[in-house]
Fold this sequence. Notes:
8 helices
Amino acid sequence: MNPQDPLANLHPLREPEVIGWWPLAPGWWIVIGLIALALTALAFVLYRKYAANAYRRQATQQLQNIHTQWLADGDSQVYAAEVNALLKSVAIHAFPSRDVASYNGSKWLQFLNGGLATQGLSFPESFANSAYQKQVPSSQCQQYLEPARRWINHHKVVQ
C-alpha cells in the first residue's frame, strides 16, 4: 500500500440501474383515470349539445328547401306562410308552447326580433302579416331568408 495515495485502493463508483416507466406508480394511475373520466364527461356534454341542436339543423334544412322551392315556382304567398310556420314550429319546440303558440301579428314579430337584437338583423314589419295576405311582393320575401336562418341558428332556448 502506498500511504501517499489512499484513494487508489477504492473501487470505481457503480451507476445505479435506470428507473423504468413500467410499472407505473399509483399516482399515475389516478391521473390516467381522472383524464379518462374528464374526456368521457366532455364527450357526453358535447353529444348532448349536438343532440339538443338537432331541431336547428333540421329547421335550417327545411328553410333551405322552402327557399329553393320559392325560387323554382315563385309563389311568394306560400313562401311567406311556410317560413312563418317553420319559425312557429321551431319556437314551440324551443320555448314553452303555452307562451309562444298564441303569438301572432306584432307580438310574434316582436318575439322574433327580440331573438335577433344582438345579430344586427330584424324581420321587416311586413313579415308579421305576410302569411295571411293574398299577395306578397317578391322583394319582401327575399328579406325573410337571412333573419329566419339567423334566428333558427342563434335563438336562446328557455326551458
